[in-house]
Amino acid sequence: MISAIVISFYDHNYIKECISSLAFVDDIIIVGKIDSVVLSEIEHKNPVQFIESETLDFDFLFEKTYSKASHDWIVVLEANHCIPVQLAEEITEIVLNTDSTGNYKVKTRFMFMGKFLKFSGYRSSYTPLILHKKSIKNKITSKKLKHSIEELYLDFDRYSERQTIKAKQKAQQLYIKNIQPNLFHFLGKPLWKLKKIFLLKLGFLDGKEGFVFAYLNAFKEFKTYLFLWLMYRNIE
Prior knowledge:
This protein is an alpha/beta fold. It folds into two domains: about 150 residues, Spore Coat Polysaccharide Biosynthesis Protein SpsA, Chain A, CATH 3.90.550.10; about 80 residues, no CATH class. Strands 1, 2, 3, 4, 5, 6, 7, 8, 9 and 10 form a ten-stranded mixed β-sheet that branches. A hairpin with a 2-residue loop joins strand 6 and strand 7. Helix 5 runs parallel beside helix 7 and helix 6 packs antiparallel against helix 7. The protein is globular and about 55 Å long.
């Protein structure tokens, strides 16, 4: 009844918990990059296949993968997310209803440093989660799910590690596009990211956790252009 597409780029710390939350789906496709040892340790009662890809573009990866899904209903998520039991039940109820059509989007809950972030971009942000093959090509307004998906937070060090990996991936994309880093990239973009999350997206209402979250994302922006600068100089 339901296929799942999990997009993962070396999300070794998260992938097992993500897959275990997908007990309600009938087959899983993991697309991206993952260590073969970690892949071999993934367990699920239904088939799990892996498609390796160097491409980092989320939409491109989905376009490349969804036709390989065995079922018409597809759950698509990144490997650092998991689906709580209540959300899984809601998805199953939708799929079992023969009158259900279209696409569905979901809010994200993120417990960061022991506190759920209610603002910092999480208050009003929705992301696509359930898609029907017949409606993928159509520009249909997505319906909202009642329950939220959860972004995984294991500890500060592993969260920071993932931010660094994401920064390197974005730097690689910018390098391919021949983007040359300049002073604005090193100063303006990180400061704008900090202002956007902490002020415009009301991160200050999340207290010190909101500031740390905004700071780490601003620092990720700085690291992106630092990695890009190093690439142009062939420095590891």
